Amino acid sequence: MTVVSAIILWTVGSMQSTIHDLAEHASGASRLLLLVLYNVVPKLENFDFRHDVSNFIPVSGPAAATAVVHGIGYIVVVLIIAAIFFNDRQV
Predict the structure, then answer these.
(1) Is 86 exposed, middle or buried (0-12, 13-18, 19+ CB in 10 A)?
(2) Helix %, strand %, coil % of the chain (to 5)
(3) What band does 91 get if pLDDT is binned at 50, 70 and 90?
(4) pLDDT tens string 11-54
(5) Residues 6+ apart with CB under 8 A from 47
(6) In the predicted structure, residue 2 carries a pLDDT above the cut 90
(7) Cα–Cα dist 42/63, whole Å
(8) For the whole model, what pTM was predicted?
(9) In angstroms, rounded to a whole number, what is the distance separating the alpha carbons of residues 76 and 64?
(10) C-alpha distances in Å from residue 48, one per residue of 11, 12, 13, 63, 74
(11) Nearest CA to 16 among 27, 7, 36, 1?
């Protein structure tokens, strides 16, 4: 289950611009679902520097800083959610 959810999260996180474009053209419940996915799932496109690095283009400071800040933010949110869920568990 962990592997399947990680693959789904990676797929959805890597397709954030596509999900946003689909949400703009959708209506009703599908638009709401796509907007929730767009706003809740981490935007992994912020961490994708493959094109720049493979073409020897230097990564800009603001882009790297944005990726670091987003990464720290996602880590903090996940740790808070894990602490809430596992607060009452005894190991």
Answers:
(1) exposed
(2) 75, 0, 25
(3) low
(4) 888 888 899 999 999 999 999 999 998 888 888 888 889 988 99
(5) 67, 70, 71
(6) no
(7) 16
(8) 0.69
(9) 18
(10) 13, 14, 11, 10, 16
(11) 36
